[in-house]
Specification:
alpha/beta, 7-stranded parallel beta sheet, two-stranded antiparallel sheet, disordered N terminus, Pol/histidinol_Pase-like, amino-acid biosynthesis
Length: 303
Amino acid sequence: MTCRRCRTGAGKHLILLREEDAMEPEEKVSVHGGHSGQFCNHAVDSLEEIVKAYIARGFAWAGITEHAPGISQELLYTDQREAGLTPELLYERFGRYMVECRRLQTLYAPQIRLFAAMEIETYSGYQLFVPALIEAFAPDYIVGSVHFVDDINFDYSPEMYHRAAVKAGGIDRLYLRYFDQQYEMISLLRPAVVGHFDLIRIFDPAYRQRFEHPEINKKIRRNLELIRHLDLILDFNLRALAKGADEPYLTESILRLAHDFGIAVVPGDDAHGVADVGNYFADGVTRLKRYGFTTEWRKPVAG
């Protein structure tokens, strides 16, 4: 039998996963999930198929958090540009997403509580663009994410990450810019959920040591203090495990700080297709319980 965490043969990881898989968490939820191939170029399957998977896998509630439409042709995701999409087409598609999500919300209300939400970006102009999107589409809540630093989509590939680091003046400076942009976004938009707080580590094998860098650690603490002050939710994003990482976003040191600060942390599968729904949920619950977090999950509400 193969261990899902390390992709090797049976061993100590397998024993741990068997224990975790045998657990029955109080309630299955996803505060950040539900990307579908119907409305996202780097996802698969229809939104209804994904919703049915949440129901079949026993979820009590799920936030469907599709990406906001792009602000300009230059700042689209690479896969969107390659598909020949434009900001106008993406805006229209997001409108269809909201209509479909509301339909499914009503249709499946007896079986699951769905949130029709939106994951936003922090590229140039977002300060006016995102509030306009919120007014136009009235999502149930927003997930505040940072995938762009200084207008470079750093998490798309190692090459893009390197470009972002060079532009910032090195990896340490990239981290500092990331956490400054995140702080600005949280202060301005007050998202109900802060998405994958430490995504900046994605292509940095030395991230654990880097988080201890005095300047970087100071900004992490500052951002967490703001999240606590605003009483927001941190996304415990399990998709990192599906991509081969040995811990979710949040890393252990930040998870400990979040607990010390009394911040609500809620699992998000960040599903990009039916096969992703609920992945590593038991693992995530085990980790959260280990650090003393409650599993009476807070539901997100719009600010």
